Structures are given as C-alpha cells and as structure tokens.
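quick one, two chains, predict together pls
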Amino acid sequence: MRWLTEESIEHIALGAAVLGTGGGGDPYLGKLMALEAIKTYGPIKLLSIEELADDALIVPLSMMGSPTIGVEKIPSIEELVAPLEKIEETLGQKAAALMPIEVGGVNSLVPVLAAAAKGLPLVDADAMGRAFPESQMVTFYLDGHSADPTVLADEKGNTVVITPKDGHWGEKLARAITVQMGGSSTVCDYALPGSVVKKSAIPGTLTKSEEIGRLLLHKSGDGTHPIKRLLAFLNGYKLLTGKLTDIQRTLTGGFTRGICEVEGIHDDAGRVVTLHFQNEQLLATEGEKPLAITPDLIAILDVETGQPITTEGLRYGTRVTVIAFPCDPKWRTKKGIETAGPRYFGYPVEYEPVEKLQEGGGK
Amino acid sequence: MSYRIGIDVGGTNTDAVLLDHRLHVIAKAKQPTTEDVMTGIWKVLIAILEESAISPGEIGYAMLGTTHCTNAIVERKQLNKVGIIRLCKPAATAVPPLAAWPDDLKAAVGEHHYLVAGGYEYDGTLISELDENEIRSALEAMKGNVKSIAVTGIFSPARAEQELKVARLAHDVMPGVPISLSHQIGSIGLLERENATILNAALQTTIRTVVSGFREALSKLGIPAQIFIGQNDGTLMEADYAIRYPILTIGCGPTNSIRGASFLSGLKDALVLDIGGTTSDIGVLSNGFPRQSAIAVDVGGIRTNFRMPDILSVGLGGGTIIRIDEQGAITVGPDSVGYRLLQEARSFGGDTLTATDVVLAVTDTTIVGADTSDLDSDACQQAYNRMIEKLEVAIDQMKTSKEPVPVILTGGGSILVNSRLAGASEVIKPDHHDVANAIGAALGTISGEAENIYALEGRTYEDAVEAAKQQAIGNAVEAGAVPATVEIVSVEDVPLAYMPGNSVFIKVKAVGELDAK
C-alpha cells in the first residue's frame, strides 16, 4: 500500500498519455478531477494487486463516449459515484476497491475522484495496460469473464443496468445508451472478485505510468536523453527520428482513422515510416515492411522533450521520435490477437512481436 | 484627405506609422516602450506628428495594437474581481471554476463562483432549465463584491439562449456591470472556455483605461480620429467592441507583423519571420491572414481555448549571445543582451559576442560605427551557419507541406538573415519592414467568427455551414465592417469522434473592410 499524492497525479497524467499511444482522450481533465479529489479528500490509498482479498469486490470505473463531449459536459461527482453504487446494489456486495479499466489517456485518472469521495482505495492495475477504443478489449474478456452486469450512469440521475451476453454486446449496447445519455457516460463493467483480478488484470500499471511521467519530467543526473531512458524502462525500440510530412484523417464508424508519414532526419535520413491510427496508433510500416503492430504499443514523442503527442496534435513539420514497445503477454495469446490484433482493425498483416520485427534493429 | 495612424506597442519599442488614404507610408517613428505604456504611446504620437508635418486635424483613424492586457495578466495588476456563473447542474461539478489557476491570479480575480442549473447537450437539447430565482440570488450575493461577470454554459457555442438570458438578469440586478458570455469568446472545452471568459471579464477595466487614455492623448494633440484596437487575428475592432472583448487583444503583436508583411510584400501566402532583439517569431500567412493555433493555449499559466495566432518563437535575435569554448564548440543563445546591443556587442566596443557581430563579420552587411576587425572570421562563419540552420529548422516546422514557400523578413533584427534559407523559395525584405507591425495595425480589416456544433439530423451539411456563415458575417458587421465588403475567408469542420457520424463542429471566419464613414 502507498499513497497517491498530487505529484503522483501529475506524473501519471503524463505517463498515461504515452501509454495512450495517441488516443485515449486527453488526460488533462482526468488530472484536474484527480487533483481536485486529493485537495478535497486527501491522498488516495493505492493497493498493489497482491493486497486484495480473494473475495473482495473490485470495480473498474471509466468514462465512455466522445472525448469532445467529455471535455464540454464534464462529469459531476454524483455521476462518477452513481454506477458504482448501482453495481453494488445489483451484485448485493460493497466494493472493496476501484480500479481503472485502461491506463492510457483520461480514463487512467477517472476513478480517483470516485475512490476519494467513497473513501475507497484504488488498485494499482488495469485491464489493458494501454488504451484501446472498445470495451471488450480488456484482459478480463480474454480470460472469459463476463461483462454482466454493466452499469451506465449520466449526470441527470439515470442509471442503466445491462446484462450483455458477451463483451462485444456489452460494447455495442453501452455505446448506444451512451449516445442517448448525451454522448458521454460513466461506466462500471467487469466488477470481479479479488481472486480474479489477481490473475487477470495487468499489475502495477499506475506505478508504471507514474514512472514514465517522472522520467519525462525530471532530468537524470548524467544528462541521458529522456527518450533513451524511456526506451530502457519500457524495453522499447526507436523506430525512427524524423519529421511529420503528411497526415490524413477520416471519420468512419465513429472513429478517427488515418495515417501519418514520418520522414527520417539525421541518422534516419532517407527512411519513411507510415503510422496507421484508429484513435490509437496501431501499425507502423516502412514500405511494405511492418515495424510494429497492435497490440504492441507505438508512441510518437517530441524529439527534444520526449513529451507524447496525441493524434489530434499531429502537424506537418513536427520533429518526432517514434518508439514501439511490447504489450503485456496477455495480448499475445490467440484470443488477444483476435480481439485487438491488426485483423480486427482491418489491417491486412499478421501480428508479430515488436522484438522480432526489430531484431538487430537499433535498440 | 484622411490619414491614419497605426501604433504597435511591443516589449521593447513602441512603433508608429502614418499612412495616407492609399495606405502609403508618410512617416514612421519608434520610441522605447514605457512601463506605464501610455507615456511611450504619447511620445511616439508626438514624434510622428513632428516627422510628418501634416495637420493633426487630417488624421481620421487611429489604430492601436497593445500588450496592456497581456501585461495585466502576467503582472496580476488592474484585474477586476469577477463573479463567475457556470450553467451546468446537475453536470460538470467535478472540477470547480479556477481549478488550475495559479494562487496569486486566483486571488486577484476573486472566488465568487456559482454553479447553477442549466446547460445544453451537444445537439442543443436541454440538460436543465434555468432557475431564475437561483440565478437572481447568486447575482444578489455577488453584488458589490465584483466588477464584472463571466457566464459559461455547457455547449453554449451550440446554443446561446441561456447565457443571453443570464446576461439580461444580471443587467437587471447589477446595471452597468460588464458581462462576458462564453459563447462569444471560446470554443468547445468547458474549462478552457470558462477560463478565457473569466480572463476577459477580469480585463474589462484595463481595456477601458487603455481606450480612454488613447482617446485623451489623441484629443490633446488635436487628432479627431476614430479609435480602433488591434486583435490577435490581424484585424481590428471598434473601441466599444474592444471594451467587450479585451482578451482578443492578447497576442496581437505578431499578427500585426504578419498582416503588415503581407501588405508590404503583396503576398497572401508565405511565412513571416519577425526578428527582434531576443527572439524570432515565425507566423504563417494563409490567404492574407495569420494562421491560428489548433491547440489550447496557455495565457499567464492558464489553459484557454479562445483563438490565438500560431506562432513559433525561436531564441535567436540581434542581441543573442554567441559562445565559443576552448575546444571551438559554438552555442547560440538562448540568452541575449537585448536592448543593450550598442553597449555590449563586440563590434561596438563591448565584451560580448552577439549574433549581430557574427553577421557583420561574415556578410556584406554594415552598420555605421561597427568594427569587426578583431573577430575570428572562421569561428564567426561557423556560428553564422548555426544561426541560419536554427532558423531553417523553425521555418520547416511551420510549413504545411514540402513545397518551398516565400519567407518575408520583418523587425529590427532582420539584418541577421543575409542569405538564402533552405525551404524558402525566396527571402523578401520589403521596404518599411522595420515597422511592419505598426503598418499591420493600421490596415483596418474587420473580422467576425462563428463556431458551433451542428446536429445534422433534419438539416443538411450545407444548411449548417450557411447558418454558421451568416452568424460570422453578422459578427463582422457588429465589429464595424462594411456589410457589402464582408466575405468568408475560411470554413473548417471537425466531425465528432465516437458519435454516430451526424454531428459536426463548424468554424467560419468572415472579414470585411473598415467602415470608413
């Protein structure tokens, strides 16, 4: 057990933007909510996964919907607490702790305010180890756990309990209800006992996010470049350093899809890498050759500071370093690749781990 | 014949130009910017009248681009206490107003804030009705404690009625107290728009003081001019409009330079490199106007989303200090001797090697009284290459495509560039480039904008764009443009992600000529 302070929140927000791989929403609002919570209620207890009792009820809490709407109709405290109370009522058990469902972008910090208001601890784990666009893209789903019940709430006092037959239906129904709720909602799904969370969640991801933030915000004693330190920490690979020369976005099926091209500079002069994104960056290719493939993570960082750049922030001429690093092993299973691999997102390539693709490449 | 005066108050100098009715430069003058700003303006007005020898009575228009409002925020001076109303309940209570503000600025603006019932969904349907009694009692509670009011409602850029209703109630309870409405100031993003609206309200006394001080100065000098204030999209607003939207003056300096550069060079699409003593600012001239930033902008440490020019600042100016260490390694800045160039630079007998020295040593450029004979020409050549490379990288960052573009040089430090620049199709240094900012201020175009989310159920995309256009034109006319000259200069749209594909954010800008009545 340790305490999350205001400083932890600042670091997590930055780390979550790296793990957001370009999507996941801007962690800024999550950060403000979390800071407000700590100001009002004091530091938050953070439990490691081992500290959970087997029969304790652990409840993930997140926001669903358009980030554009989320930053305009920001949540109320009641709305953040409502799905939690409703799922407790439905299951007939009190929550012992809350957890983030994803550790990329805004949702990394959304549960903090509810945890603080209810006096509950937060679990240092999540179910993606990154950000993904759809709600069945969680390790709980991979391990065959049910999203039943899923509870959605809005700010007006509406709550909806759905009992989807699987994670895909959970996503589909929740998305439709969210639209009716005004385009954004708060959600609790995959509320599971401690014994399951211990086996199925990805441990230590808030701490990981915090470490990334700390690495990027503070200089090292020996003056090592922040991106170099980040790559060492993430076991990652530099794909190239270059400048953005082309960016194309289209909106299909409610998702921002597109590509951006990075032309190598300095040591990488002459190379061109294309990044394919669908909210998140999902595929990096050089000519026909894939360099990194979802569910492995691809992040675009400012070449000087290492600060992550979101898909909306991509602009011609920006100097960037593109990095890739391995996802949690749970995503590399057959079901993991089926759920969040390149085919699911419509890319005509087979998944191969980034370590293999980068063999002999400049780590 | 009617003349016009343009004044630009910069960090170092206050520049002025006098133009005739065909926009020819008749006279120009520079004075140091003074701490109180107004003294510098007064002096530069006198200087320009002396130089031009025309009768003050013939000056019909006076345009001022000023840093007063930026300074007020940075120095936390002269800011109004603001009554803050957020129309949101039961939504949007998780983060209170002023949440991420620095403590001293929060203290200056005050903490009279009220979260009340109200707000709209993205499609314009109600979150909740306004409760008139609730709002009246909030207004009664802040009466006497605040000097202006800021009202922000959820999705007010899509539908403004509730904010307008609150303005009427506020006018009832506190007649004469200025009211800032968020839909007239910022775009989507509640907290950022609320911040911009609060800053706008906080600046309303400052801007009144500027306008009345300027008016008084002109009248003392016998200049019967109509007053305009420069805003940060490179256009002007009438004094009354400026008094309502002081925040739009923030960042008008670089945009004046960009507009001036466009006028002086005759180009509508180019990069503008404005080199001063400490930094070089690069802006993009697109279709005759400065390109705006697409991301949230910090003003005095506060995240806002009102429109701001897209400017890249590079730490390289005429006074930038160049260091050469024992191994011969060269560093360029980022520090600068600033306005003490003539005392401290090596060519003028000082001890510090500056960017200006380097240029004088390796190019044909000369300045009277400068002596570069004891400078190491090899080292200077290397330093010069480094300086140019720094500018070239910055230029490349501001381009929108690989194609080379013209680069227009402005500002007192533009002697730094004396060669070709990679990425530039040509480098242009127009006449009067040293006062391009003041010329930009004097040009006199007037703009209006509209930014809304449109639900495309029951209306076509074309309908929605047309509605936005009409609103933008209306705003331009209200700001002082001649209706017949107003045209649409840009239409942008952004579909909303994660929504069922039929809501779109549309942003339109209209521009017209100054109503020279």
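Chain A has a mean pLDDT of 92.
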